[in-house]
Amino acid sequence: MPLKDLPADAQPREKLLARGPAALADAELLALLLRTGMAGKGVLQLAQELLSAPPPKGNGFGGVAGLLQASGDDLKRIKGLGPAKRAELLAVMELARRATAEQLRERTVLDNPETVRHYLQLHLAARAHEVFAVLFLDSQHRLIALEELFRGTLTQTSVYPREVVLRALHHQAAAVILAHNHPSGSVTPSRADETLTQTLKAALALVDVRVLDHVIVAPGAALSMAEQGLV
């Protein structure tokens, strides 16, 4: 059903203005952003499909978190998302990343563990391949920069401690948070993850840089190895 045919108090825009954004379902908020559907498919139906399970069970991204982690190429596969709609969605995603980064630059990451995990999920969780990244932090544990340093299967031999140390020195970092994604969807640390963490911790300690955590992310999930006593 087109939005204009819904009762006035059920139309997403009027509902939002009257009751606030929290009163809207995820699909209604997304429909406001998309504005229009396509031939034979209303905008609410299109929004619901975008939030549905990923292929092969559905045609979407598995919810808001999955959609926020989608790339431009991922969005291209969705029929009904032309260049304008894709551009709007990508802009919203980038604004979410930048807003989260601002929070981490202004306050110590130790006060914002959930924000840190959310930030890393936005950047890494939806990648089809493993990516190893580092959050470089100042002496007050505020964010200086996030850098993706290595790609591919991550082992002690494919992540080079020397390169991590050099980047820490370049940023004059006092501490770091290590991070990588598990495309399999599981965030359980492997034995290789534990070994890599200890290797990097020892290497960075030589230049007086602390490893605060190693976060593993996947779509819809994140795990802190520090909270598991593994750092």
Keywords:
Cytidine Deaminase, domain 2; 231 residues; five-stranded mixed β-sheet; alpha+beta; 9 helices
Shape field: elongated
Into which percent range does the helicity of residues fall? 40-55%
Strand order of the largest sheet: 2-1-3-4-5
CATH topology of the largest domain: Cytidine Deaminase, domain 2
Mean pLDDT: 85
Pfam family, one: RadC
Domain MPN: 109-231
InterPro entries: MPN, RadC_JAB, RuvA_2-like, UPF0758, UPF0758_CS, UPF0758_N
Protein name: DNA repair protein RadC
Structure description:
The protein has helices at residues 12-19, 26-34, 43-50, 64-68, 72-76, 83-106, 113-124, 161-170, 191-205; strands at residues 131-137, 143-151, 175-181, 210-218, 221-224. It has 9 helices and 5 strands, in the order αααααααββαβαββ. It folds into 2 domains: 3-81, no CATH class; 112-224, Cytidine Deaminase, domain 2, CATH 3.40.140.10. Strands 2-1-3-4-5 form a 5-stranded mixed β-sheet, sandwiched between helices. The longest helix has 24 residues, at 83-106. The mean pLDDT is 85. Helices cover 42% and strands 16% of the residues. Helix 2 packs across helix 3 (43-50), helix 6 runs antiparallel to helix 7 (113-124) and helix 8 (161-170) crosses helix 9 (191-205). By secondary structure, it is of the alpha+beta class.
